[in-house]
Amino acid sequence: MTPKEALASPWLTVRVQIALGLFFVVAALPKLVDPPSFAHMIYNYRLVPGAFVNLMALAMPWLELLTGLALILGIWSRTSAALVGALLLVFIGAISANLARGNAIDCGCFDVSAANKTVEERLTDMRFVILRDAGMLLMVAQILFSKSRAPLAHPPA
Amino acid sequence: MNLRRHFLEAATLVLAAVLCALVANMLASRERKLALVGSYPNALKINPSASLSSSAADSPPAGSGATALSEVSSKVNGGAEKRPRPAPASIPEATSPAQGSEAKNSSSSPAELLKRFPPHNKPFVEISGDDVAWLFARRVLILDARRTKVYEEGHIAGARSISVWESDVDTKMTALVNEARDGAIPVVLYCSGGDCEDSHMLAQKLFGAGFNNLLVYRDGWPDWQKRGGKSAAGPES
Prior knowledge:
The complex is a heterodimer.
Chain A: H1 3-7, H2 10-33, H3 35-45, H4 50-73, H5 77-100, H6 119-149
Chain B: H1 2-27, H2 65-68, H3 102-105, H4 110-116, E1 125-127, H5 129-137, E2 141-144, H6 148-153, E3 155-156, E4 160-161, H7 169-178, E5 187-190, H8 198-208, E6 214-217, H9 220-227, E7 231-232
Parallel strand pairs in B: 1-6, 2-4, 2-5, 5-6
Antiparallel strand pairs in B: 3-7
């Protein structure tokens, strides 16, 4: 088995899908339970116009949940992986922008309650979050790579 | 063709997420509900504490306020905002708007409050715990801008809860405005101190509603606890 074949193996892909899906489902739950706190987190990023903060706080957790579930269940997994990839890029961009301008924030990724951390602790966390999200982007890449090599479910007639 | 199918799948997922969000928000309890369109005028401004203005000197308070009001903050506004406000024609004689009839029993008078904390014509001014203790003793209106569940865990005794992050903020503000309080009388607002801005955001909203003497407790609830100030727990009575 060549490295490419190993990377695209269904055995690996299924496990990556489930792991990535679980990440997103777990991340969505606290945000679904407490949308105002998540809105506060989004506000702290200082990147979203005020009028859209609440809409984003309401819709994003559901998108995370649905894409996560789709990945776990193997439904529309290529599309879900692409959406998850897009979300991860947005997260990485948002945190990087705030790191660059020294705005220390709680990322609000898995917990929406404000943590009593120092500025330095927050900045360290933000760097870690970027690395973690980049790791998840690699998982997305694996899924997309694997799916691109898989035979088409509905071959053209 | 494949691309079109993926696009349709993505659109379906996004649409489903939006629909679920709308339905869930409709069914959510008051504390967990959000107004669909947010009203956060400073959502794109960062590092507010770096823009502290020294223009407090424009209207320094008499009495202890020299230090207390030396940090007029434009934390939320990003600059000292000055705009014409309806000034009170005269100082009310009988009651402080702070606590209505309760104020009659207090030793303070509106004149005393206004002498120390004159209307400043700014969205808010930050004050210290000593000033809050002084105002608390004179039963001024105190507003807790933290989330309701946090308020219920413990708050300054007599404080009213108005969380800027909950969907009923406008209803509570309207009720407050309808009490026809004199906007020149000091109102204290607080949240969790530190980098918490909820009280500043609430002050900005109230300033827009005609309150002209909003005092933000800079160090907030943690400082009040540290001081052993009178507190209460449970829902607003």
